[in-house]
Design goal:
Length: 352
């Protein structure tokens, strides 16, 4: 269990708590090792900006890479805040560097001591730091961008299933490594056009899963994808990622955004009842899987390895001659909608 969560649950005095946190940070920093040579890193143009970082295209030892440079915002941050940011950075690196899977973006290394030579192609901004993570460069952009670009087109059903399986396999793998992502959303998934795969990225909110459920001191992740138990600050574990996956599954199938309005001011009791409306043309087996993934009770959600099996079974339905080969990004209408539901149900019964 994370030390800060332990202290939050206990009645530890403020002074003792601060002392323990300081000791914990010292231990974390002693575990830090530079895993790249900053002299060999060169930053190029900005590819994107997030809440806590700026992503550049760069080169490292002749290889094109993506470089996430932490953005600390105010350059006048306090020493205490810097200590927290440094600890969070080390935690992200410690989690990410242990992961190795085709559906997880590969981390190459990290440094907390970028040099002037790193920035010979750009000017350092006031908000960027010397903390950076270097990972493989994926040319296809985010899954969110892909969805928005293709929302007026038809997506082959096999493309949808391939994407869903890639994400499910990536999450199943990180869960097998006792890691909880805690910010599963299309923005944190990259489309690798070269290998036709989806890869998870951004482990800034990720933690190693404790042996027991734990309380969090605040919300983690992004509302709309965040599990109700996280919003309510109740005990949670890896099933929070399963909930997030369920929302992503809906968005990929519908080529749309589940919630287009601000959810920040919703109370936990209202938030926990919210779910996207599943299109009537959605295959029954797929609709059932979405509903299981975003069930309000985490114990009733499937494990990600079970989701992989369920998606593979749904993929087999494509071989049924009555199942439409192409699924549109928008709901079908009239008789076509009725035929779609009827054909899927016939296929389901045939395979039971």
């Amino acid at each position: 269990m994370d030390l800060q969560h332990k202290l939050f649950q206990s009645g530890t005095s403020s002074q003792h708590r601060n002392n323990m946190l300081q000791s914990h940070r010292i231990v974390v920093e002693r575990q830090w090792q530079e895993t790249i040579d900053p002299q060999k890193l060169v930053l190029g143009k900005v590819l994107g900006r997030g809440s806590f970082g700026v992503v550049h295209r760069g080169t490292y030892e002749g290889q094109t890479v993506a470089v996430k440079v932490l953005d600390f915002g105010d350059s006048k941050i306090t020493e205490a805040t810097m200590a927290f940011l440094k600890e969070d950075f080390i935690k992200e690196v410690n989690v990410w560097q242990k992961l190795n899977h085709p559906n997880v973006t590969k981390m190459i290394g990290a440094t907390m001591s970028m040099t002037k030579s790193c920035r010979q192609k750009i000017k350092k901004t006031k908000t960027e730091s010397n903390f950076c993570i270097v990972c493989e460069h994926i040319k296809g952009g985010s899954l969110r961008s892909y969805i928005l670009k293709n929302r007026h087109k038809k997506m082959p059903f096999k493309t949808f299933i391939r994407m869903a399986l890639d994400i499910a396999k990536g999450l199943s793998y990180i869960h097998s490594q006792k890691v909880i992502h805690r910010d599963v959303k299309p923005e944190n998934m990259l489309v690798d056009k070269q290998h036709s795969t989806i890869k998870l990225i951004d482990f800034g909110e990720s933690i190693f899963e404790p042996s027991e459920l734990f309380f969090t001191t605040g919300e983690r992740g992004t509302r709309g994808y965040m599990a109700p138990e996280v919003v309510s600050r109740k005990p949670y574990g890896r099933k929070c990622d399963v909930y997030s996956f369920g929302i992503c599954l809906w968005e990929i199938y519908c080529c749309d955004i589940a919630y287009t309005y601000n959810l920040d001011n919703l109370t936990p009791d209202i938030y926990q009842e919210m779910r996207p409306s599943i299109p009537i043309n959605c295959p029954r087996s797929l609709a059932h899987l979405m509903e299981r993934c975003w069930h309000i009770d985490p114990m009733k959600r499937p494990e990600m390895k079970e989701v992989v099996v369920a998606l593979e079974e749904i993929e087999m339905l494509e071989e049924c001659e009555d199942l439409p080969a192409v699924r549109g990004c928008f709901p079908l209408f009239g008789l076509e909608r009725y035929k779609s539901r009827r054909n899927v149900d016939r296929c389901t019964v045939r395979n039971q």
